[in-house]
Design brief:
The structure is a single chain. Helix content is about 35%, strand content about 20%. It is α/β, with parallel strands linked by helices. The protein has 2 domains: about 325 residues, Aminopeptidase (3-Layer(aba) Sandwich), CATH 3.40.630.10; about 210 residues, Glucose Oxidase, domain 1. A hairpin with a 2-residue loop joins strand 15 and strand 16. The two termini are about 30 Å apart. The protein binds zinc ion. The site of zinc ion has 3 residues, from loops.
């Protein structure tokens, strides 16, 4: 039997000095949180996860129905549309899928041609061409060039590390290892692992193609058979105002990932063995050498332009001096669409991922709209598209925000309603340690009776894996509250619950409404997220990056210097090298999180 949570909630809220607010504010916030109802969260989720919506993939009627539903709810709450005059910010997307039968990868080793086997030795990333018009089109790319191996392909001046230092990559195809040196601090390692950062670095060094391989330990986490279909489904990019795919590098005319077998074939001609280069990589030492071989990559892709939309609502702040500053909440509405069938069901319902977060955010919006007086600063509710394809909707929003970027003081993201699995003793605040949002989180958690636990899987760098990272890249302090692994019910082993969910339901049709879901606990988690945004909107100071923080130092200046995404997009490549994120293989990474997290969870459990 579960302790009746609503009772607990009231007791907690009434007995604590909520957020150090003055009495009327505290009472108002207390009253508003009562608008967050478990039944409403369940009802929203049931609608959004229904088979009728076919898994809410961007560009499908199912997504558009979900978007209309969200807008309808927001309108009913009395909130205002905030996407250039309406509820919907149109996000133009280009989708491309490699035509494997028409594509090829051939190596010339010691003067002999060797055609590699698609799906066995390699898989090609899609090559995009700028679409000329709406509708289907064929993109074709061809590159033949000598090969140079460049270790991780990382140039990190702040770490005094450069794989390219001793080699000339101009006009060459670079072979590089997935990831970045484990000797880097974890945040920096995550940043330099980013596929976009690496691609920009390759282009900056004159490379015209990339062939990637993975370390043996990464193959353990991301098995080839598991990875392959996720790359084969294709990629999406958002299109800028000129119709050009964002974060795409036409200079790189071929992009392949080798399997372990493919890597063995390539290295049969190399001056060093795979074992030697893996050992150097593990030691965190830069390395590069010419491989006496060349590669011919021919890529054919079917591409199409589709439209999806973010849904944006606003609650105007009550303080004339502060109302032009915004706290932005985000939750992604999209999911994967139609998937490989499980038990006869081929709809990826995305009930927890992220119908639950969307539903929690709708209820948070309801709580805000029920305040007798809006908070001092304004609140934006951005329900975004294309998260599953690489944070596309949030990245688009962060480039073309409904309000000046400079006026956005914080982002609170919800990817999976916190508490949805079970009643929690603790929460994990992803990103809180990077900015003064950490203090806000501590205060909100205290008033809710939650402990704040450190990220149980820091090596997974989850902070850069959901929509909050799109804001971080534009210099905005951000936080994402996720589940702690300690349940209030001693009979529930939180770690086991999450671990099991990741292998049995994550990104499958079984993430549906027929699984155990704790709506009371999700409502409590939503109150926590409400309180974080509310405190930021009320307090005198705006959140700031911690002194010397990597994200703050790297991206913070953007926030102050740039007012609109149009300008951001026009910034020179040399600046953008430090200011963008991964989409190339990002989705793969993101999808791989399920597997990777398991490793981490096992490790935690063993400790
Ligand atoms: Zn997902």
């Amino acid at each position: 039997m579960r302790f009746p949570l609503r009772m607990l909630l009231c007791v907690v809220l009434l007995s604590c000095n909520l957020l150090g607010q003055n009495a009327p504010d505290r009472a108002a916030a207390d009253a508003a949180t009562k608008a967050i109802r478990p039944d409403e969260i369940r009802a929203h989720m049931r609608f959004l996860a229904d088979s009728l919506l076919q898994g809410r993939a961007p560009g499908t009627p199912g997504y558009d129905i979900a978007a209309r539903y969200v807008a309808t709810e927001l309108e009913g709450m009395g909130l205002h549309p905030a996407a250039s005059g309406g509820w919907f910010q149109s996000v133009p997307l280009e989708k491309a899928v490699t035509d494997a039968a028409a594509s090829s990868l051939t190596l010339t080793l010691n003067g002999k041609e060797q055609k590699l086997a698609d799906a066995k030795d390699y898989v090609l990333s899609t090559w995009f061409a700028t679409p000329l018009a709406k509708g289907e089109a064929r993109a074709e790319s061809d590159v033949t060039a000598p090969l140079v191996f460049v270790g991780f392909g990382v140039t990190a001046p702040d770490q005094k590390y450069d794989d390219y230092a001793s080699v000339d990559a101009h006009g060459k195809i670079v072979g590089e290892i997935y990831g970045a040196p484990s000797t880097f601090p974890s945040t920096e390692r995550a940043y330099y692992s980013d596929g976009i950062v690496k691609a920009k670095n390759a282009v900056a060094h004159g490379a015209i193609g990339v062939i990637s391989l993975m370390l043996p330990e990464d193959w353990k986490r991301y098995p080839w058979e598991w990875l392959l279909p996720q790359i084969q489904v294709g990629e999406m990019h958002w299109l800028n105002k000129a119709g050009v795919p964002h974060d795409f590098f036409p200079e790189l005319r071929g992009n392949a990932l080798l399997s372990q077998r493919g890597a063995q074939i390539l290295f049969s001609a190399a001056p060093k063995t795979l074992e030697q280069v893996f050992a150097t990589a593990k030691a965190g030492k830069p390395q590069a050498f010419t491989v006496p071989a060349s590669a011919h990559i021919h890529t054919v892709a079917a591409q199409s332009v589709i439209q999806s939309s973010n849904i944006v609502a606003e609650l105007k702040g009550s303080d004339l001096a502060l109302r032009d500053q915004y706290v932005v909440y985000t939750a992604h509405v999209d999911h994967l669409g139609i998937c490989p069938a499980v038990e006869g069901d081929n709809v990826c319902h995305g009930a927890l991922d992220n119908a639950s977060g969307t539903s929690a955010l709708l209820e948070i919006a309801r709580a805000y709209s029920s305040l007798p007086k809006p908070p001092r600063r304004s609140i934006l509710f951005a329900f975004v598209t294309g998260e599953e394809m690489g944070l596309l909707g949030s990245d688009y929003f962060a480039h073309f925000p409904a309000v000046p970027l400079k006026s956005i003081v914080a982002n609170v993201n919800i990817d999976g309603a916190p508490g949805i699995y079970y009643s929690m003793k603790d929460v994990v605040a992803l990103g809180a340690e990077h900015s003064t949002l950490g203090e806000v989180v501590d205060s909100a958690a205290k008033s809710m009776g939650y402990q704040v636990s450190p990220d149980p899987m820091p090596e997974e760098v989850s902070f850069i894996r959901s929509d909050q990272y799109s804001f971080v890249l534009q210099g905005v302090p951000a936080v994402d509250i996720t589940d702690g692994v300690n349940s209030t019910d001693p009979k529930i082993n939180g770690l086991e619950v999450i671990k099991k969910w990741l292998v049995t339901r994550y990104h499958t049709p079984l993430d549906n409404m027929d699984q155990p879901i704790d709506f009371d606990s999700a409502a409590k988690g939503a109150v926590m997220d409400f309180l974080i945004g509310y405190q930021v909107a009320q307090q005198d100071e705006i959140p700031a990056w911690n002194k010397g923080d990597f994200f703050g130092t790297t991206f913070g200046p953007r926030h102050n210097a740039i007012n609109t995404g149009e300008q951001a997009d026009r910034s020179p490549v040399s600046v953008r090298v430090l200011c963008d994120r991964t989409i190339v293989r990002f989705r793969t990474l993101q999808l791989a999180a399920g597997h990777a997290s398991l490793d981490a969870l096992f490790q935690v459990q063993q400790k």
